[in-house]
Design brief:
The chain has helices at 27-35, 52-67, 73-123, 138-142, 147-157, and strands spanning 5-10, 16-18, 23-25, 39-44. By secondary structure, the chain is an alpha+beta fold. The protein folds into two domains: 5-70, no CATH class; 107-157, no CATH class. Strands 3-2-1-4 form a four-stranded mixed beta sheet. InterPro entries: PHA_DNA-bd_N.
Amino acid sequence: MNDNVLLLKKYTNRRLYETEKSIYVTLDYVTDVIKQGRQIKVTDAKTGEDVTSAILTQIVFEEARKKKYLLPAPLLYLIIQYGENVLTDFFDKYLEQTIKNYLLFRNMADDQFKKWIEYGESYSKIDPQNLTTLSPFKNLFDLFTVPAQNNEKEKKKS
C-alpha cells in the first residue's frame, strides 16, 4: 500500500485506532493528517469493511458544524431530495475535478499577481529613458509604485 496512506481501524465504540503509532486518535487528529497531504484508509475493525467515505463525510460535517456553514441550504436540500439518483454521477465525475481545477487556477492567478507586483516594483527602479516603449502602460505600472516615491513627486509639484 502507498506510504502516504494512513491506515486506521474503526471500532464499534466509534473510536479510531491509528496502526502506525498504535494509538487511538480523534477526528481532529485525522483532519490534521489529511491537511498535511496524507490520505487515510479506515476499515471497520470487526468486519474489515472500508468505511473511509463515512469517516471523511463525518469530518466534513464536523468542520461545517464548527464554522456553522459549509454548503448553502438550497444545495443541501437538493442532496437530500435527489440523493443517489441524480447527484452520485455529479459528485463522482465532476465535483472533484471542478475543485481541483479551481485550486489550480487560483494558484496560477496568485502566481501571476505576484509577478505583476514584482514587475511593478522593478518598474519603479528603471531608468525613465528606457521607458518610452512602455508609455501606453504607464498608468497601469504606476499602480505598483512605492508610495514614498509618490509623496516625493507631489512635493516637487508644489
